[in-house]
Amino acid sequence: MRRTMIAGLIAVVVAVSACGTSGTSGDGELAGQTVDVVGTWSGEEQVRFEKVLDAFENKTGAEVRYTGAGDELPTVVQTRVSGGTPPSVALVSQPGFAAQLAKSGAIKPVHDKVEEAVVANYAPIWKKLGSFDSMLYGVYFKIANKSTVWYNTKAFESVALSPEQPATWDRFLSISRSLADAGVPAVSIAGADGWTLTDWFENIYLRTADLDSYDKLAKHELPWTDPTVKAALHELAKLFGDQKLIAGGSSGALQTEFAKSVTDVFGEPGKAAMVFEGDFVSGVISSSTKAVIGRDAGFFQFPSLNGSAPAVVAGGDMAVQFKDDEATNQFMQFLASPESGQVWAAQGGFLSANKGISTQSYPDDVTRALVQSVLDAGDNVRFDLSDLTPAAFGGSKGTGMWKALQDFLADPSKIDETMSRLESSAAKAYAP
Questions:
Q1: Which residues pair with 66 in a beta bridge?
Q2: Which candidate, 181, 366, 144, 365, places its Cα nearest to that of 273?
Q3: 173 assigned to some structural domain
Q4: Are residues 302 and 281 both part of a single domain?
Q5: C-alpha dihedral over 143, 145, 146, 150, to 10 degrees?
């Protein structure tokens, strides 16, 4: 998931939560037991997650220790597993890494009560996403909605346009041309960060191909020369190939990093009317601009193509367990419950696919709308495709999907060449 990528590399820190108790005696049923948790979160996110851990401590009497490992989480986890000191639970944002851990036997399938909680509280797709070899290994605790387009209301008002939600891709392009004709570049694209371009492609592909094709492409059971890939690139070229729609044109976009693509829309002066990326755009708006979300900044869901149903490309942090003891099993069950998510939801900066969490638990209308769009998509949710592929293909700077789509942004007329390059890179990455 890209939230950890944009956060940058951090040092590994260990934060030990205070031991809480349940009841008046100070002795919960798990008193004296410890759950050791590793996650990516640091800073404010860690503070908010530790309140979730406090709630579990108070409920059970167990002690929870948390280590924030940032982008180094796979390395930290692998080192600990190799050294014979695995954590109890890790929150993993790369499904491929979780599958690797399951294949090696490092993590355990969840217990029946955990699976029952997942079935009760999540759409079936989330059980599927957390399963390997038909066994459930993970609970998606925190997710990202990566199918959102964020707009500057003042930019639309300046050219007498209403920031309506375009129902279709054609309408989105029409609005973009109207903005450009009025002298306002429609979209700021973070082409310097290749992962944003994979998200553009994935959202188009999810809406032009069927769900089965999306799943097969992620596994390389379909080649990247398949007609479904060509159809998606053809649609994407309608935007990438119209230089007046892009702030700075393709060359400017290729020099624009993610955070700057957001501030170019919501900073002063604004350089574009819209930016596409996940719900985490709101964090950049709040921390780096004076724009107020809900007043100066809004969002709409990625539009439909060819009558496609509402769909969401998602990322997420999946809890997997390395130990099979009562405290760990109860902690996993707690993470699958609405109770745990409500603790963080009330603090902000959190989305969950757990349908048992009332949308009123979230602090504002924008967050509630972001969550509702995920819930409404139901089983039309698919995990970030590039995160499902080998890192050499879907997650490496200067190669694979990132580089091929950067070159496509530079020259969107080269659809066939782009497909061939993608297939060549994929074939090497998936080779045994």
A1: 15, 37
A2: 181
A3: yes
A4: yes
A5: -140
